[in-house]
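Final report, closing paragraph on structural work. Over the funding period we assembled a curated collection of sequence-structure pairs, and we close with a single example.
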Amino acid sequence: MPDFLSRIENRLQTLVEGGLERLAGGRVSAASLAAAITRAMETSLQRDRADRPWAADVYKIRMHPEDLQALQQEDPDLEAKLEQAVLQATRDGGYSLLAAPCVDFETDEELKHNKIDVQPNHSRPLLDHTQQMPTLQGKELPKHAERAYLVRADGRAYALDREIINIGRLPDNHIILSDPRVSRRHAQVRLREGCHLIFDMSSLAGTQVNGQPIMEHLLQHGDVITLPGMHFEYRIQETSPSETSPSQTEPNGTET
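Its predicted structure, as stored:
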């Protein structure tokens, strides 16, 4: 294994170990998880026109139900810990990511004990012009982007006031939805060249715009975004909803 892959594997193992020694019965360990994710990361690398490597940002990890139960009993926060480990490992390896890493565990009774199957994926297609996306952090946003909101049916609004807005169940999302059908990292709204695009993050229930399932969609004023149990309307308007009805506006990151 090349040195940089060994470093990534060691980084993953160190970050997820945290007391996860090999479990009784020779079941899954932090080391075997790290090795499986590293192999998946290596085999799924894609390169853009500038030859920049992009690692997968979605990892579906399948294992025997008893192995998964034992792991989660040892560390209930293992998925979140693995996501942080993948993020740090890609940085160490010099890889880029299309979105924040998402790790989901699935059970498969046909898999043998101590067997791990990792299915990596990119949350959206790697476009040839990815490397040409503008870096907007620290710059003044385009005027229409400053006036863009996601508005719920009850009038509560979320200002799209940053380059990336994450939507899902996890508490570190900017818009948190508690419906159990919503994935932990379900969708993402991204600012690109003055326009907003919404991406489905390989969610289980999917994301719809105007009643049609999407993986990527350029948002237009009046578009209706549907997630499980929730509808948002994408609006561009001169005055913010908070100016119209202050009591109905919640800050980003407030659970809905």
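Confidence is low (pLDDT under 50) at residues 18-26, 128-144, 243-256. Helices lie at 3-17, 30-43, 65-74, 78-93, 143-146, 241-244. We thank the funder for supporting this effort.
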